[in-house]
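Folding Query — how this chain folds
Tokens — whole-number codes for backbone shape
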Amino acid sequence: TVVMITAVCWVPKGAAKTVPDKYQPDDEEILRLQREIRNEDQKRVEEEDDEINTNSNKSPSKNNEDISEFDLEHYDDEDEEGLEEFGLGGLLDSVAPEEPLQIEEDDEAEVEELEDVMIKPTDALVLAARSEDDFFSLEVHTYEEDQDNLYVHHDIVLPTYPLCLEWLDFDSTSDEGKSGNFVAIGTFNPEIEIWNLDILDNVEPSITLGGEKKKDQSPKRPSQKKKKKNLLLPGSHTDAVLGLSWNRQHKKVLASASADKTVKLWDIQAQTCLHTFTHHADKVQSVQWNPIEASVLLTGGLDKTSAVFDVRNPAAVAYWRYDSDVESINWNLHSPNTFLVSDEKGNVYNHDVMKPGQFLWTLNAHSKAVTGLAIHPYYKDLVVTASTDKSLKFWDVTGGRPNCLHSLSMNNQKLFCLSFYKDSPNLLAVGTKDGLQIVNVSQYAAVRKRFNM
């Protein structure tokens, strides 16, 4: 079994419901399921009818007796009650909306169920994109910091390999765009799925941006013609979605980077593509909004460049070039005019947007690709890097002279991503080939001493 955590992100404290809702199919979905049940039953009865007709010459009187009980002449007129004869009543009940969970004081089982799903104010939630052989999922983990206890609260089954995650609190399903608890997911498919994290046992995303047009579900006669590839929705990416960034100041706007060499802006509420940027010559690996300037984007690609531009003037692009493909990018929250970039050869570069093509400093941090790059939310000179060379390193970059304070191996496994938790800034989520791990950076003496933690 090969397990990989390919992307991680934290849910801000207080964003999740204390008691998540249970998934309830809407009326349209119930009708669809009921139609499927009826169609399957009709098919089964027709097959039985054919079998009876085949044997009719052998014992006609007996066959007439056998089928009379089914009243096939009036089969199409039967209501749901008639389906009970075929043992389908219970199945129909299972797809009907459930009653809201009612907790009675004397019902210990329901109280225990409520406690199992309850999210306490002290709980930290971290999202992990997981692949395990041919099974793909989003795991919602609960971390109890006081007990150093990490477990899966619930998960969501995904259709294909997940590549990137972005948490957002914009509810596109409400007319007013209320706050919520959602995650955008990019996969090998040319679409972006946005899921409601406050619903347990969810089976479908709240919305999907781009992707294939929905197939016509109406019955059609068999065709001998060669099947055509499904058409994509207008504005859709045409290849895998590799990076996502939600605009926290303009909350209905989401940026995406793709293997189709483009960067797109999406109106989440209208579920449409606002603009497509084509400033990279190869796959675009990463995208990130500037934390202060709401219209400024940073991107990095497999064309060995990073780029900064204002989306209001996309023709004016500032570029930086490297010797290998870009792996990760990160704006500096403490100095929003600067940003870090890591590459496939293990290097890290520091940049100033006012100095295109130049580097403030460079660092050969690892022997292999630097797949994760993060700046501590509180200590501006503490940078952490993760690599496929199986090491996690902590750097003091004071004065532009990076110094490695500590290096550790994470169970001798390759590392793919990392993210600091702003609500408890010493906590670091690390995605590895062995699963998700939580690291408290203050536990390492050299780091603790240098930054007086």
